[in-house]
Amino acid sequence: MTHSVTGGALGRVVNRPVARRRRAAEPCELCGEPLQGEHAHLLEERKEQVLCACRACALLFERGEGGEGGLGRFRLVPNRRIRLTGPPPSELGVPVGLAFFVRRADGTVLANYPSPVGATRWEVDTAAWERLVGRYGELESMRTSVEAFLVAIVRGMDERWLVPIDDCHRLVALVRQEWTGMSGGQRLWDRIAAFFAELGR
Question: Which residues contact 94 (CB under 8 A, 6 or more apart)?
Fold first, then answer.
């Protein structure tokens, strides 16, 4: 079933940039300690909320000690980015050229399409996803909820990446904030191209 994800906790993430470089004075969203430049992110799975974390909190969840708590279950967002090559994933039945795919704990895979109103989702056919994993072996190691297969085959771009989920949230925010007119506007597509160039660095 297709629906727009704009409200609640995820809506708050979509409405603000999620970046790895933040002001040092900004606090860790778990313990309140000041963040020191580059920092980790945690995913609160039940609310699908990305939180900025200091090194101590990140190490706690890296060791798997976070578990269930008053704020929900957290998972450390990894920081690896892998550029993938191969045939375009057209068999996934995605009607757009810019999307990301996230595997859920129950084994299903959700396609997410960044749009002017947030991220629209639909469930990917299981057999089609398995065929795709056969073509992109790296997707076998894609971590549930916290990593995504990101695709941009649109306007001359041909980008396929395995990325942390916070990169996808940044992209959703970018599209929502910059979209103008019927097709998004040249400024938006220039910024999307710059986004992918930054992934490569």
Answer: 111, 113, 151
Same domain, 192 and 138: yes
Q: Which residues contact 62 (CB under 8 A, 6 or more apart)?
A: 76
Q: What does pTM read for this prediction?
A: 0.78
Q: Is 198 helix (H, G, I), strand (E, B) or coil?
A: helix
For residue 153, is it within any domain?
yes
Q: Note the residue count of the chain.
A: 201
Question: What domain count does the chain have?
Answer: 2
| Residue-range definition of the domain harbouring residue 39 | 21-76
DSSP H helical segments within 41-125, as ranges?
55-62
Rounded Cα gap, residues 78 and 19, in angstroms: 14
- Angle, alpha carbons 120-118-194 (nearest 5°): 105
Residues 68 and 112 in one domain: no
Kindly report, residue by residue over 126-179, the tens digit of the pLDDT. 998 998 898 888 999 999 999 999 999 999 999 999 999 999 999 999 999 999
